[in-house]
Amino acid sequence: MSFSFWAVATLVFGVVAVVVNALKQVLFKDPNRPPVVFHWIPVFGSAASYGMDPYKFFEDNRKKFGDVFTFVMLGRHITVALGPRGNDFVLNAKHSDVSAEEAYAHLTTPVFGKGVIYDCPNARLMEQKKFAKSALTTGAFRSYVPLIVNEVRQYWLKSPQFFGGDSNRASNKTHLMTAMPEMTIFTASRTLQGREVRAKFDESFADLYHDLDRGFTPIHFVFPNIPIPATFNRDKAQRKISDTYMEVIRERRRTGDLSEQDVLNTFLRDAVYKDGVRMSDREIANMMIGILMGGQHTSAATSTWALMHLGADKALRDALYQEQVEVCGPELRELTYDDLQNMPLLNNTIRETLRMHPPLHSLMRFVRHDLTIEGTRYVVPRGHYVLAAPGVPMIDSQYFKEPLKFQPERWLEQKNIIDLAAQDQDYTVVSKGAKSPYLPFGAGRHRCIGEQFAYVQLGTILAMFVREFEWSLPNGRAVPTPDYSSMVTLPAEPSDIVWTRRRVGEKKY
Ligand code: HEM
After folding, report:
1. Do the bridges between strand 76-81 and strand 385-388 make them parallel or antiparallel, or are there none, so unpaired?
2. 67, 75, 119, 434: least surrounded by Cβ within 10 Å?
3. Do the beta carbons of residue 112 and residue 132 sit within 8 Å?
4. Signal peptide: which range, if any (predicted)?
């Protein structure tokens, strides 16, 4: 049979599939199912419009259908539930009804490794989170701030984008999406995992973590084992990084020195589940990858957005500098954790950044049993997914006046909203905070454990920038629009700032 026969047959088959798919959507609407977003191409569904701009996609369909609707994306049926009630429905659903592990494990297990986070029963994850959380105390944070200060200084001194070894350099241009991920991983590894782990980043770890990153992409969310170099490199890097943590663990066990207040030591000492089973060293090693990756993209994206907004707002930068002077004196003595607690504008700048740019736009769960959506006649069937988009109410004028304006001072009036979300500290109980319109760290059993750490890390880094630099976006450019093509919401390139030193030569590095 000739080539042209197959070409014609394929074309006919394609056209028939498209027509049948379209007719099915128009003619057979099940009143007990949420409305389905119309799509021409079967299986592929609305992948392009959702993937390019999820917030526009949510808003367009909310206008058509209200807060609840289903879309098809690469064979998956995903029911979106918007607004605070939607957040509550998805994030507070019972674990017997929905699961995060069946939504995420295919992406995360090859990156973190076996036995942890989503590669274990949910009850185990809840205990792993408690082990980690028990390390993240105020006492630990007090010890972290000077470590972060030191890491930031060292980074500025070594990085060609900053002083590059010349402590008198007065100005330069910096690509934030290069610099901030590096600063984030150096400061997080030094504080959460200790000196030896941090030292590995000066050797091979940085490249290996890059390889892990390149295997943690939307493509891998859809095709976890797609046979491309990024996938092979991800798997190799995971093994090497996990083995390296194992060496660190063996050495700490050998010397018995568990004195540093890092998360690794807490796991080595205390990680025994309620049923008496101790986490294996391999699981602890993999947990360290999970913890570092959990905070890496989220915090790097947040500091980048914050620096961009500040770069576009000199009055805000000046007010932040003034706050530094008021709390630490005109000589700007070294920052402490307690100083950070006395800097409302700094903390509200982080809060506002997360309101406008929550790093994660979609939180998903796999539906394990048919799930009725309260207050509607809709049932989401087993095998589908549900999706919460906490970022939607965060830019809704119903909850935040002039929501598209970056105004950290709004949080002086909206304190009640923060408090509501902050009530969730026990991940296993039903969350009261899930109904809050402000949930950058999620809610319910899968709520983030890293919120306080993130504030310490971001607060210290931003305060250091405010003290040291004046900066702006090149050529008076506006803050970039969001780019949704990676796992977190980033500013579209170019993410450059141009800076000058505030007081060249006064600070010795
Ligand atoms: C600005 C920084 C951060 C943001 C915006 C953020 C956001 C989130 C969100 C939205 C979730 C919920 C995911 C879901 O429900 O599907 C989450 C969970 C989590 N995050 Fe964070 N995170 C940040 C930093 C961190 C840091 C620094 C760590 C580690 C120290 C961390 C570790 C975790 C862990 C372990 C979970 C729990 C996953 C689960 O239970 O399923 N995060 N984070």
Report:
1. parallel
2. 75
3. no
4. 1-22
Distance CA 124, CA 115 (A): 9
449 CA distance to ligand 1 centroid (A)?
6
CA distance 209 to 201: 9
Strand-pair partners of 482: 491
Q: Is 448 in the pocket of ligand 1 (CB under 6 A)?
A: yes
Domains in the chain (CATH in brackets) are 82-501 (1.10.630.10)
Largest distance between two CA atoms of the chain: 85
User: What confidence score (pLDDT) does residue 505 get?
Assistant: 63
DSSP letters, 312-349, are T-HHHHHHHHHHHHHHHTTTTPPP-HHHHHT-HHHHHH
- The low-confidence residues of the chain, meaning pLDDT below 50, are none
Name the β-bridge partners of 76: 73
Helix, strand and coil in the chain, % to nearest 5: 55, 10, 35
Does any ligand 1 atom lie closer than 6 A to the CB of residue 365?
no
Q: Is the CB of 444 under 6 A from ligand 1?
A: no
Looking at residue 421, its pLDDT comes to: 62
For the segment 112-123, what is each residue's pLDDT rounded down to a tens digit? Answer: 999 999 999 999
pLDDT at position 426: 61
Q: What is the mean pLDDT of the chain?
A: 92
What per-residue confidence (pLDDT) applies to 201?
A: 87
